[in-house]
């Protein structure tokens, strides 16, 4: 069948809305009609060459849609089910999967590296027969996609598609970093550097974990105001305040957990600097592949830790339904994060994100 997709042919150029031929789902695959897809900085990294991928490629990795067909061997998803797509397909057979770290599955890593659905084949091609690659098994900047069955997570249809889409990346990454990487406990203190789509969900995760102080750091007044509404107890304007001295003055001696939700070495340096002895700095954002981080060694004597996390360390099939329930139960406020715009404005949305003019999360909706 035919599908419309936003294709990146060359780094540094806009996406081209193109009709592709989508093949029928193969064994263990699912065809999904996209209803909503978020626009994330990770997509910008592909366009700008900071995250190299095989070209041509269809970006997009944060989405919700409707199952329209299933391949052989898929007997646990009904046609019409609402699913959230995940960049964490898993094989359940590699060392990481057997150890319970399915977010580090080697097969999922192979799909990400090759831009395929099974290590060899893509699900679509141009009219001349040439293949177009997938982004981490999702490629949601399209009207219909093929994904591995393990990359589709069924969620309650009561969650609106534009909200459900965020569960695939921004919410899983932010809340997951709090729950899994940092394991924030009630009464502990937190700093969040960067209050975009991911950082605001770190704030929400910290609130739900019972943190006593949540310091939100950003350069945008509107984002800081939204962070307060979502649970931040203190805000720091990084335009005029010295982040390190201001945060450590607000929380004497530093915080128990500090999160870099931007993905820049200098932000990670700030996060490490504002942790108290025994505290943890968490690298949440996605860094350029050639980025380098230099940190002072002496503070490590205070048993400070620096940890990384990939998509919040979540198991999508466990955590995404749980996060959907948190939203429906009013514990996780996601509707305030969504700015909807039509799918054909994908390049405009990316330009807005690149310019820093987005309050929380742009979500492209497909009619």
3D structure, described in words:
This protein has 367 residues and is of the alpha/beta class. It has two domains: 2-154 and 334-365, Alpha-Beta Complex (Quinone Oxidoreductase, Chain A, domain 1), CATH 3.90.180.10; 173-310, Rossmann fold (3-Layer(aba) Sandwich), CATH 3.40.50.720. It is built from eleven helices and 18 strands. The strands form four sheets. Strands 3, 5, 6, 9, 10, 17 and 18 form a seven-stranded mixed sheet that branches. It has a six-stranded parallel sheet with strand order 13-12-11-14-15-16, with helices on both faces. Strands 1-2-7 form a three-stranded antiparallel sheet, with no helix packed on it. Strand 1 (2-7) and strand 2 form a beta hairpin. The radius of gyration is 20 Å and the shape is globular.
Compute the number of strand runs: 18
Q: Identify the quaternary structure here.
A: single chain
- Look at the helices and sheets and give the structural class: alpha/beta
Q: Helix proportion of residues, in percent?
A: 25-40%
User: What sort of overall outline do the alpha carbons produce when their principal axes are compared?
Assistant: globular
Please summarize the sheet with the most strands: 7 strands, mixed
């Amino acid at each position: 069948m035919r599908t419309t997709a936003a294709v990146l042919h060359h780094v540094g150029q806009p996406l081209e809305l193109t009709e592709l031929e989508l093949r029928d789902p193969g064994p263990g695959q699912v065809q999904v009609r996209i209803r909503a897809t978020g626009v994330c900085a990770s997509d910008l990294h592909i366009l700008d060459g900071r995250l190299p991928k095989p070209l041509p490629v269809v970006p997009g990795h944060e989405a919700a849609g409707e199952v329209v067909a299933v391949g052989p061997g898929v007997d646990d998803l009904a046609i019409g089910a609402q699913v959230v797509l995940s960049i964490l397909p898993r094989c359940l057979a590699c060392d990481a999967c057997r150890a319970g770290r399915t977010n580090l599955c080697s097969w999922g890593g192979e799909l990400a590296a090759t831009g395929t659905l099974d290590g060899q084949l893509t699900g679509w091609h141009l009219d001349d027969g040439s293949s177009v690659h997938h982004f981490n098994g999702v490629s949601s900047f399209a009207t219909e996609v093929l994904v591995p069955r393990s990359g589709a997570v069924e969620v309650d249809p009561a969650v609106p598609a534009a909200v459900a889409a965020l569960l695939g990346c921004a919410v899983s990454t932010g809340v997951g970093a709090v729950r899994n990487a940092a394991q924030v406990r009630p009464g502990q203190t937190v700093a969040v550097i960067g209050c975009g789509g991911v950082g605001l969900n770190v704030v929400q995760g910290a609130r739900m974990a019972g943190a006593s102080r949540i310091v939100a750091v950003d350069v945008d007044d509107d984002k800081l105001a939204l962070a307060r509404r979502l649970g931040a107890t203190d805000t720091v304007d990084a335009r005029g305040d010295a982040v390190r001295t201001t945060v450590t003055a607000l929380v004497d001696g530093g915080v128990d957990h500090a999160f870099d939700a931007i993905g820049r070495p200098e932000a990670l340096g700030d996060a490490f600097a504002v942790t108290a002895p025994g505290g943890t700095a968490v690298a949440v954002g996605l860094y350029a592949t050639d980025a380098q981080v230099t940190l002072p060694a002496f503070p490590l004597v205070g048993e400070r830790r620096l940890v990384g996390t990939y998509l919040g360390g979540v198991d999508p099939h466990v955590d995404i339904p749980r996060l959907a329930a948190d939203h429906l139960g009013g514990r996780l406020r996601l509707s305030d994060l969504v700015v909807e715009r039509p799918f054909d404005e994908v390049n405009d949305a990316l330009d807005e994100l690149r310019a820093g003019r987005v309050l929380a999360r742009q979500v492209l909706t497909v009619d």
